[in-house]
Design brief:
By secondary structure, the chain is α+β, with helices and mostly antiparallel strands. The protein contains 28 helices and 34 strands. The longest helix has 23 residues, at 534-556.
Length: 800
């Protein structure tokens, strides 16, 4: 009984029992093996086994046996010892093209001579078969043997089919028996054509091989014929290449008729092997020229090394990236290439498709340019200016040289823009940009960073004086009159300058500090330049704190109105009050209007403050006697807001105040741009019944033209003329002229800032109608006005 697993050799059946038993009669088919002496060895073998091995056996190592037999014996013995029971293996031997199959059964045994011996039983199984015949018959390829038929002069005239396989019969489309022993000329198959016969006749006697193709069914099928000549015998191999041809046709269709330029070039020589029509048309080279060129002929010289390195790195897929190529006319284009390694005939090649992206690149570059440049002036914009300044600071090498930043605002540009329209304003900005570029040096940068705001990087200035000199040149150049479409425009420029490293080492610091210097230049005297000083930073911090407090103050209700009386000189009585805005800060006390009003205008809070002032003033005035008017100042920004007229209507409606008791004061700057829109707003307000007064008359440039454009109800003489009325005759002359003008036009004249009795008498003598100032009363809270009215009535009664 055999056990499933026998590791102790004592359990193996004894050698004597097996070999002296029934297996002894099969001694011819048995060999004895042992594997324990280091080299597997076949000790003895019967006659049949020796015949199978092809040699006599006397303690022969397996390494001296034929490979196929040794492998079978080793596999059987190893399996038997591993499992401890019989193990069946198979062996195949090919001798003289005949295939023989054998069973090899290994039986493990114990022995007194050694620990284990393996008996191997070898027996042939199945039928022998001829390997060549089997391959010949079963292969899908067609194989045909042909014998030459000669005439009486021994010239080859025909070929007889000596033998063929099923594959050949299938490809030729005829039964095998009908083809065998037939001459080619007697058939109607693919090999029967005169052209094939001529090719075969040319091969006879040469001892060489040749390949050619033939078509079947009108080109629907294709067969490749490979022929080898041995004397008068020919061996032809037929291969169906129909699918290959179809793929080639598809490739040709995609290649030749593709609208994308395509080509094939040799991977080794890099010579063009084929180009399609699109490549010929797009590049301008003829096909003949292309096929005489290498791929490097279309590369710009400065990219040859990069192209070569890229090609050397390619394994299968052609690198997809943008390249510059040269066309036949010498022009450059940018192309995106796609490709892969292919076999082109028998050559290793690359098939490449190309997409011309020249125009797309131009568009992308234009978009990138637009993203960093101002569309109107083509100057760098704020983003590019910041990046360039950062880079300039990073590469600053000479510590003796400074980098200057200039922030530039155009003075009076808004007046030109409002007066003559945006087209003129745009042309003016273009002319300004041109003059800018003439003032700076080649390594400097000018940018437009806002509507009428510019910035300049002065790279490497030796001293502040050099930066100041350039700033003065810019101001002088920009202040020279401009001729635009027959219009003469005059503007100016204010400049703030910051120098690195003293005023900052980063782009943000320099821009911020130059902007603070600009703010100082505009505040002190327009048309000049100022350098940054540390005190400006403190002032800027104060202003930022003021902005924050101002926003909070409006939301928290910290504003209040005070009222200053307007006195009729002739009757010595109060005719009205001017409403004046006051800010009572919770910790700083009263903030002067001159300090917070400009800030409110800059941050856009003035419109909301102005509407609040208008509503509160009308509400207070509604409590006064009917003959007392209220005067409210309108800021230029509030006047230009679209909701002004509606805000006036709402204030009158909510308070119940009659329109005739409301007087709106505007400054000359509101009408500096005498536009139809401004005049229309004034007429709308006049249409409500509201009185219109011009404040600070005489301080502008064309006051008289304003009086001609709109009939004001009142003009207010600026306090600067009243202050020096007693000391300066010219001030007296101006007051006399304004008062006379008012009388002639039927316009009331009011003098501001009256502080002395002498000033009052002078104004009375010159015919002024109204006065206001500290001589009579400062601005007071609303609750004190009743007592003031009573006091003036009593004074009037005593005077009467």
């Amino acid at each position: 009984m055999w056990h499933a697993a026998l590791s102790p050799e004592a359990l193996l059946p004894p050698f004597e029992e097996i070999m002296l038993g029934s297996l002894g009669r099969l001694a011819d088919n048995i060999g004895l093996m042992q594997t324990e002496v280091g080299v597997p060895t076949l000790l003895r073998a019967g006659r049949y086994v020796q015949k199978w091995l092809g040699q006599e056996i006397h303690d022969t190592p397996l390494s001296q046996l034929s490979t196929e037999c040794a492998m079978a014996l080793r596999e059987a013995a190893t399996g038997a010892l591993r499992l401890g029971k019989p193990y069946l293996a198979s062996a195949f031997c090919v001798r003289n093209s005949i295939v023989e199959s054998y069973d090899v059964l290994a039986l493990p045994m114990s022995s007194r001579w050694s620990r284990s011996i393996i008996a191997v039983y070898v027996c042939e199984k199945g039928e022998r078969y001829n390997l060549i015949d089997t391959i010949f018959q079963t292969t899908d390829q067609g194989i045909v043997s042909l014998a030459t038929v000669r005439d009486e002069q021994s010239r080859p005239t025909d070929f007889r089919i000596v033998d063929l396989n099923n594959g050949a019969a299938r490809l030729l489309g005829m039964p095998l028996d009908e083809l065998r022993w037939r001459c080619l000329s007697e058939g109607s198959h693919a090999l029967a054509s005169p052209a094939v016969a001529a090719r075969l006749q040319a091969i006879i006697g040469t001892g060489r091989s040749e390949e050619f193709e033939i078509e079947l069914d009108g080109g629907l099928a294709h067969i490749k014929v490979g022929v080898i000549a041995v004397g008068d015998l020919l061996s032809a191999t037929l291969t169906d290449i129909t699918n290959l041809k179809r793929r080639e046709q598809s490739f040709r269709l995609l290649f030749d008729n593709n609208p994308m330029p395509m080509w094939v070039f040799d991977a080794t020589t890099r010579r063009f092997l084929s180009v399609n029509d699109a490549a010929v048309a797009h590049y301008g080279y003829s096909r003949e020229m292309f096929l005489q060129m290498t791929i490097s002929d279309i590369w710009p010289r400065d990219e040859v090394d990069a192209h070569n390195e890229a090609l050397d790195r390619i394994s299968d897929v052609y690198e997809s990236r943008c390249w510059r190529h040269l066309r036949a006319d010498g022009s450059e284009i940018e192309v995106l290439s796609f490709g892969r390694r292919v076999a082109f005939g028998e050559q290793d090649a690359f098939l490449v498709a190309l997409l011309d992206v020249t125009e797309r690149r131009r568009v992308e570059q234009r978009i990138a340019h637009m993203a960093h440049h101002d569309a109107l002036t083509n100057l760098p914009n704020r983003a590019l200016f910041h990046d360039r300044l950062t880079n300039t600071l990073a590469r600053r090498r000479d510590p003796r040289q400074s980098i200057a930043v200039m922030c530039v605002d155009l003075d009076l540009f808004k007046n030109v823009n409002d007066s003559f329209g945006h087209p003129v304003g745009d042309k003016l900005l273009q002319l300004v940009s041109h003059r800018f570029m003439q003032c700076v040096r080649g390594n400097d940068l000018v940018a437009r960073v806002g509507g009428d705001e510019f910035a300049v990087i002065l790279d490497q200035v030796a001293s502040p004086a050099e930066a100041g000199h350039i700033a003065s040149q810019v101001i002088k150049a920009l202040s020279t009159p401009y001729e635009i479409d027959g219009i003469e425009a005059v503007i100016g420029a204010s400049i703030g300058i910051a120098l690195s490293p003293g005023d900052g080492t980063s782009a943000d610091e320099l821009i911020r500090n130059a902007d603070m210097a600009l703010y100082r230049a505009k505040g002190e005297q327009r048309g000049t330049h100022r350098f940054f000083e540390q005190d400006m930073d403190r002032q800027a911090q104060h202003r930022r704190a003021l902005e924050t407090d101002l926003r909070r103050a409006f939301a928290s209700g910290e504003f209040e109105l005070h009222f200053q009386p307007l006195i009729d000189i002739a009757r010595d009585r109060i005719t009205g009050f001017e409403a004046l805005l006051r800010w009572r800060h919770p910790t700083k006390g009263m903030i002067p209007p001159a300090e917070f009003i400009p800030v409110a205008e800059d941050i856009g809070l003035i419109v909301a403050l102005g509407e609040w002032t208008l509503r509160r003033a009308c509400a207070e005035a509604a409590k006064w006697p009917d003959d007392i008017r209220i005067a409210v100042n309108l800021s230029p920004m509030q006047f230009r807001s679209r909701g002004l007229v509606q805000a006036v209507i709402t204030a009158l409606a909510h308070s119940g105040l009659t329109p005739q008791r409301l007087e709106l004061e505007i400054t000359e700057s509101v009408l500096l741009a005498e536009t139809d829109s401004n005049l229309a707003t004034l007429h709308q307000l006049r249409g409500l019944g509201v009185r219109i007064s011009m404040d600070d008359f005489g301080t502008g440039y064309s006051s008289l033209s304003y009086l001609r454009a709109f009939p004001f109800d009142k003009i207010k003489i600026d306090r600067s003329f009243v202050r020096e009325l007693a000391e300066r005759p010219d001030c007296v002359a101006i007051v006399r002229a304004i008062s006379g003008l008012g009388r002639s036009l039927g316009i009331t004249t009011t003098a501001e800032g009256v502080e002395t009795s002498e000033q009052l008498e002078r104004l009375r003598m010159e015919g002024c109608n109204e006065v206001q100032g500290f001589l009579f009363s400062p601005a007071r809270p609303a609750e004190e006005l009743s007592a003031l009215l009573v006091r003036f009535r009593e004074q009037a009664s005593r005077a009467a």
